[in-house]
Design a protein that fits this description.
The complex is a heterodimer.
Chain A: H1 2-18, E1 21-24, E2 34-38, H2 45-52, H3 55-58, E3 61-66, H4 67-70, H5 74-83, E4 87-89, H6 100-109, E5 113-116, H7 135-142, E6 147-154, H8 156-159, E7 173-176, H9 188-200
Parallel strand pairs in A: 1-7, 2-5, 2-6, 3-4, 3-5
Antiparallel strand pairs in A: 6-7
Helix pairs in contact in A: 1-2, 6-7
Chain B: H1 8-33, H2 41-66, H3 68-89, H4 97-116, H5 120-123, H6 126-141, H7 148-171, H8 184-209, H9 224-240, H10 249-277, H11 292-314
Helix pairs in contact in B: 1-2, 1-8, 2-3, 3-4, 3-7, 4-6, 4-7, 6-7, 7-11, 8-9, 8-10, 8-11, 9-10, 10-11
Classes of the chains: A alpha/beta, B mainly alpha.
Chain lengths: 210, 315
């Protein structure tokens, strides 16, 4: 009950701020098991993806988020754990810490769809995309049944640039591409390059804004 | 006649609803007769436009029924959405962030608050003078000089169009109009009906008889037939509704003509910006119409002129 209320408040705030619109370019919303992989510029990224999914699908889709950020403080823990049912992964790679890919595969084995950010961390640089971590490759080969959907979130980096406290209202779009084919025997580097190209192909052509 | 039936605001909205009901009927007949229930680009767009009009008339009607404060809040919200669309298409950099935050969260609410307390002396210079000076200072402090003048100019232009000019419409509610005590909301309704009516009539006349394009590079859908027919009939509409205002029929016709011409050129200017940025619409908030700015561009250009005409000659 309270989770749904908080979810509604967060989604309403996100919509008011960004008027977010979905472009289903290469696929349609579906309950089939999917791994949505997207560019990552802000903590609000998965909220926008969530906001553009039909409400019936939201319960099936879990974002991957860093435990170091979302486990800090009761409110963040509540939002990540109870509202968005995030899979909180340990990015410290400390001795004895759970393996992130293992945690994600476990969620996939459970039947959940995932939202993941192959850059591994927020992109606060001027580059369009950071180099990909290998997580997406391991998920793709470790759980071949899930469809791999490239996603591009546009403009959210302008809404809240690094180091600013106050967001500025700007219209954001979320583009969903066609599922990425799996090619037998493809190397990790080639696969990640293809995934990256599929994401970049979704970038709206608005020239000046990266 | 019952007393509530004599309420002029109610009469105007009843009229608007009647026109909408008629339009909806025609739209349905077109989609059954001509499109035969199959997808048809022009007719489907027409019907989604009509459907959106129900919402827009409903919202406007509700705010009028609730009074001056609600009208001000409604237009403040429209300014917010319009400015959001404008800044989305404008080139800004990280160094503009504070200036943008101030535009949205301080300049915009302050402008409408000043209208609410009826401080004409300040709301007429807040954005053209104080925002104009303050915002570039905020941007300069961030020390990012890339395309500086262009960025500062765009933020200012967005505020002028989306907030300052638009706010002159609800500002009419604060005027005490000679010869028509309590009729301020009617003045707003009259302008909205005439200018939006002109847009609709230009669209209808253009679709039915349009041959010769006015400005092919700016707006391929605007034709001379649509423009002349639309403005002439909207002027007639304005004159025929003069009884709801303090204007005589002739005055109403002259004012209607002026605001329609301003509205037309407003649409042209906003089209030029869209064309330059390579987009068809400002946004997607209103099904069939595009963004909020696509719908109010003509009102934005007409409102300040109308406000000054009324303020100078009728108060």
């Amino acid at each position: 009950m309270i989770e749904r209320l908080v979810a509604w408040m967060i989604l309403t705030f996100a919509r008011l701020l960004t008027g977010v619109q979905a472009f289903w370019i290469g696929c349609q919303p579906s309950a089939e098991q999917r791994i949505y992989f997207s560019n990552h510029a802000s903590h609000g990224d998965f909220v926008l993806i969530w906001a553009t999914l039909p409400s019936t699908l939201r319960r099936l889709v879990r974002p991957i988020a860093g435990a170091d950020y979302w486990n800090r403080g009761a409110l963040r823990r509540f939002i990540a754990g109870r509202v968005f049912r995030a899979v909180l992964i340990d990015r410290t790679r400390a001795e004895g810490a759970p393996d992130p890919v293992g945690q994600m595969l476990e969620a996939l084995a459970h039947g959940d769809s995932l939202i993941m950010f192959p850059e591994g961390t927020r992109n606060t640089s001027d580059a369009v995309l950071l180099p990909f971590k290998s997580g997406l490759f391991h998920l793709a080969s470790g759980h071949p049944r899930a469809k791999l959907i490239p996603v591009w979130i546009n403009n959210l980096n302008r809404v809240m640039p690094k180091g600013e406290l106050l967001p500025v209202p700007l219209i954001c779009t979320v583009s969903y591409g066609a599922p990425l084919e799996r090619i037998e025997g493809e190397s990790k580097a080639d696969f990640l390059e293809r995934a990256r190209a599929a994401m970049l192909a979704l970038r709206p052509d608005d020239g000046e804004h990266a | 006649m019952k007393a509530w039936m004599q309420d002029p605001v109610l009469q105007l909205f009843a009229g608007a609803l009647l026109v909408l009901a008629l339009a909806t009927t025609i739209g349905s007949i077109l989609s059954i007769r001509i499109a035969k229930g199959k997808p048809h680009a022009v007719i489907d767009n027409l019907n989604s436009r009509i459907f959106a009009w129900w919402w827009m008339v409903g919202l406007l009607g509700a705010s009028f029924a609730c009074g001056k404060s609600c009208v001000i809040v409604l237009f403040a919200a429209l300014s917010f959405f319009a400015l959001r669309e404008f800044i989305t298409l404008a080139y800004t950099r990280r160094g503009d962030h504070i200036a943008l935050a101030v535009s949205f969260f301080i300049a915009l609410p302050t402008q409408y608050a000043l209208i609410w307390i009826d401080w004409y002396g300040l709301y007429s210079i807040l954005i053209p003078v104080y925002a104009f000076l303050l915002l570039p200072i905020l941007a300069a402090v961030s020390a990012d000089t890339t395309r500086f003048l262009e960025r500062a100019a765009k933020v200012q232009w967005g505020l002028m169009i989306c907030v300052y000019c638009l706010s002159h419409l609800p500002a009419l509610a604060t005027l005490e109009v000679r010869g028509q005590p309590g009729g301020e909301l009617l003045l707003i309704a009259w302008l909205v009906i005439v200018v939006q009516g002109s847009d609709v009539l230009q669209y209808v006349c253009g679709k039915m008889t349009g041959r010769h394009k006015v400005a092919p590079t700016l707006s391929p859908s605007k034709t001379w037939e649509g423009l002349l027919g639309g403005i002439a009939s909207a002027t007639a509409l304005g004159a025929s509704l003069h009884g709801f205002t303090a204007f005589s029929a002739l005055e109403a016709a002259a004012i209607a003509f002026t605001v329609c011409v301003m509205g037309f050129f407003g649409g042209l200017v906003m089209s030029a910006i869209k064309r330059d940025r390579g987009v068809k619409d400002w946004g997607h908030m209103i099904e069939g119409h595009g963004g909020v700015l696509d719908r109010i561009d003509s009102l934005v250009f007409a409102a300040p002129v109308y406000f000054h005409v009324v303020r100078y000659w009728w108060t």
